[in-house]
Specification:
The protein has 16 helices and 22 strands. It is α/β, with parallel strands linked by helices and 550 residues long. The strands form 6 sheets. The chain has a 7-stranded parallel sheet, with helices on both faces. It has a 4-stranded parallel sheet with strand order 12-11-13-14, with helices on both faces. Strand 9 and strand 10 form a beta hairpin.
């Protein structure tokens, strides 16, 4: 029998609609019956009892808001009748007991990765171009067009061909109706066979708007971020372009790189435009030397590595009312499996941990790490309030439209991605993850700022859940998209890799879905499957200036 409603936690006084429900309909959950006073769209919630102003609303077993106006039992939860509220949090000595999941299906399995001399293992082999300042973005764009087109990494061939057909038809006198009827050609099957470097998975470019202007602290943080990307396990070599006079000097970058990894030994080519003979000389020399570096980097091949060498970031974006009950818990179960196997898991998005702080503190092993989390969270929250905002303003219009009414609801669902394991460490922005197990990374909730930060802390794959659909990717870390619902998978299949909507329809359990996600991770880490974001060259990169970004 199909289930049309779900009570997430026994203590909840709200229930989630899994399908569209009509006013006047009576629905049953276990031994209780509820008469709906309003239409309840799928993904949204209704109240299980009448409540007065100021009463607490509980979901996921914790406080998520307070009633603003009296509501009836069976009424729809909305932004008019509910406002964000979260319980206070405090430090308490670690007493958490964790029951690890059964990892027997995955014990002894390996993935085929790129082994670096420092002991880390990459899931891809990229060459990376880094500008120290936004002034070099144009030069990077010129180099990108040349290398991507000639070395087989461009993904725009079908669109160039389509545009060529439009121009040709227009020049032959075609009207708008004829132009509209021109079909787009399929991507040529031979495209990737043009690649002369079979062991180079891509050539990536970190265009950004920083490095000068602003405040010096912005450039200092950017330098650490760029050093983290140069040192990333998925990066084989680096070409760095500098103007010369900017705040972020090449030596600052080199100092941060040495501090991060004193034994850094990858090929690193540095070009400074103000010391070059000409724009043409700068670009041709950068292309030639990079080409020589690619020849050497192409000699590296994939070899087996234990799953403990994986470092997986978990992220959600374009979230909906199903995120916290399908894709996120499934990713969380996958995270628990990874922790049981000795791998690293990175959970970030601090504005989307609002309301979950006490659970996180209870699970944090080390008092130093717990107090660091409290300090980072309180400082971040206070800075947002000082700017006239706050964590309560985190849900986007799309989140609210699809059932995430308060930040505490969104956050409690988002935190499910991290699973249930103990928290081993808490990392500030750009700090590397060094301890196996679950690590927290301080980043904004913003999709690209968060994935940018996770890669900086060492994520070699990112599991990204979405209910509304988002194309977000990353230049050096393959991003795997997981849909929360069947409808999204059907409409945006070109960006979705895994469908967790089968949890909502009752076809799969959370545990089955989590195991399926881990199996996909192993294949993606081995280069056996290519995530859609990678196929699309969705290389999103936004450095966080440590200003207020939710």
């Amino acid at each position: 029998m199909s289930i049309n409603i779900l009570k997430v936690h026994p203590n909840d006084n709200v229930i989630v609609a899994l399908t569209d429900l009509k006013a006047g309909e009576t629905v049953q959950y276990q031994d209780n019956y509820y008469l709906l006073t309003e239409d309840i769209p799928a993904k949204h919630k209704f109240y299980t009892s009448a409540m007065e102003e100021g009463e607490k609303v509980i979901m996921y077993g914790t406080l998520v808001g307070k009633i603003q106006i009296p509501v009836k039992a069976g009424a729809l939860m909305t932004t008019d009748n509910l406002k964000h509220a979260a319980a206070p949090y405090f430090f308490s000595p670690y007493q958490y007991q964790w029951q690890a999941p059964d990892i027997s299906k995955f014990e002894g399995l390996t993935f085929n990765g790129y082994h670096r001399k420092d002991g880390n293992v990459g899931t891809a082999n990229y060459w990376l171009f880094i500008p120290t300042v936004f002034c070099e973005n144009r030069n990077l764009d010129v180099i990108k067009e040349a290398l991507h087109n000639e070395l087989g990494y461009a993904v725009t061939e079908k669109y160039k061909s389509y545009t060529h057909q439009l121009v040709e038809a227009y020049q032959n006198g075609a009207d708008t109706a004829t132009l509209a009827a021109i079909p787009i050609a399929l991507e040529p099957e031979h495209l990737n066979t043009k690649r002369p470097f079979k062991n180079i998975d891509g050539i990536k470019f970190l265009n950004h708007q920083g490095g000068c202007g602003g405040i010096r602290q912005d450039s200092a943080v950017l330098s650490k971020l760029l050093a983290a990307y140069a040192d990333h396990p998925n990066v084989a070599g680096v070409t760095l372009l500098s103007l010369g006079c900017q705040n972020l000097q090449v030596q600052d970058f080199l100092n941060d790189l040495k501090e991060r990894n004193p034994a850094f030994d990858k090929k690193l080519y540095i070009f400074e435009q103000q010391q070059s003979q000409s724009e043409e000389h700068l670009i041709t020399t950068a292309i030639r030397q990079t080409f020589e570096g690619l020849i050497e980097a192409n000699q590296m091949e994939r070899h087996p590595a234990p799953l403990s060498k994986l470092c997986i970031g978990v992220k959600c974006g374009g979230s909906d009312g199903f995120s916290g009950i399908s894709a996120n818990p499934a990713v969380g179960y996958c995270a628990d499996l990874l922790v049981g196997l000795g791998a690293k898991v990175l959970l970030a998005e601090f504005p989307e941990l609002c309301g979950t702080e006490q659970d996180i503190l209870n699970r944090t092993k080390d008092e130093r790490a717990a107090r660091k989390f409290m300090k980072l969270m309180s400082a971040y929250s206070q800075a947002a309030e000082n700017a006239g905002s706050g964590f309560h303003m985190n849900p986007s219009p799309g989140n609210i439209k699809d059932g995430l009414i308060t930040d505490a609801i969104k956050s409690n669902g988002a935190a499910k991605k991290g699973g249930t394991s103990p928290i081993e460490d808490v990392l500030d922005y750009t700090e590397p993850a060094l301890k196996p197990g679950l690590n927290l990374v301080c980043t904004p909730g913003n999709d690209v700022e968060a994935t940018t930060g996770k890669a900086a802390s060492g994520a070699t794959l990112i599991l990204f859940t979405t209910g509304l659909g988002t194309p977000t990717g990353n230049p050096v870390c393959p991003v795997i998209k997981i849909s929360t619902n069947n409808a999204l998978t059907a409409t945006m299949n070109d960006i979705i890799d895994i469908n967790a909507g089968s949890v909502i329809s009752g076809e799969k359990t959370i545990e089955q879905m989590g195991e399926e996600i881990l199996t996909y991770c192993i294949k993606a880490a081995s280069g056996e499957v290519i995530p859609k974001s990678v196929l699309l060259n969705q290389d999103d990169f936004i450095p966080w200036k440590r200003g207020i970004s939710l």
